[in-house]
Amino acid sequence: MTVGLEPADVSAALTVRILDSAGKRLWEGTSVGNGKWEMPFELKEAAAWSPANPALYACEVEIRANKVLLDKRSVSFGVRRLETRGSQILLNGERLFLKGMCYLFDHPVCGMTFDPAIVAADLDDLCAMGVACAVIFRPPRSSWMSATGAA
């Protein structure tokens, strides 16, 4: 992990914690520096993330100068290995089958107008059907088509 601080001439302490889903601390490290820190860490017994077992961890980062908290962030992440072997996609060493589709942005009520609530409902429906990946297609605007001579 690499973290940067502006201005770079401020001496500060960076503390990083890795927590499991129950909030148990798995790793913690602190480093004092100026502007940029690199803090390698290893999770020796991390559960591999997969669709069947979406094991997530939290990475909490704090930056303090003179014991005053300057910033604090938390990010969720999963540990996994994704690779290809020939034409196969492997997730954590197991063959992965992706169910996907091309989502054409069109609706019987609002047409091609973007409505976040409708798109969210559509994506919820797709997830319920087991769709794991989608290409979202929105045809180009007619003004672009005319300008490029494609119309």
Tell me what you see in this structure.
The protein has 151 residues and is mostly beta strands. Helices cover 13% and strands 42% of the residues. It contains 2 helices and 11 strands. The protein has helices at 116-128, 142-148; strands at residues 2-4, 11-19, 25-34, 36-38, 57-65, 68-77, 82-85, 88-91, 94-95, 100-104, 133-137. The strands form 4 sheets. A 4-stranded antiparallel β-sheet has the order 3-2-5-6, with no helix packed on it.
State the order of secondary-structure elements, H for helix, E for strand. Answer: EEEEEEEEEEHEH
Q: What's the helix count?
A: 2
CATH superfamily of the largest domain: Immunoglobulins
* Count of beta strands: 11
Q: Cα distance, first to last residue?
A: 49 Å
> How much beta, percentage-wise?
35-45%
If you consult CATH, what is the topology of the largest domain?
A: Immunoglobulin-like
Strand sequence of the main sheet, in spatial order? Answer: 3-2-5-6
- List segments where confidence is low: pLDDT < 50 over at least 5 consecutive residues: none
The tally of domains stands at 2
Report the radius of gyration as a whole number of Å: 23 Å
Label the CATH architecture of the largest domain. Answer: Sandwich
Q: Oligomer, anyone?
A: single chain
Mean pLDDT over all positions: 83
SS-based class: mainly beta
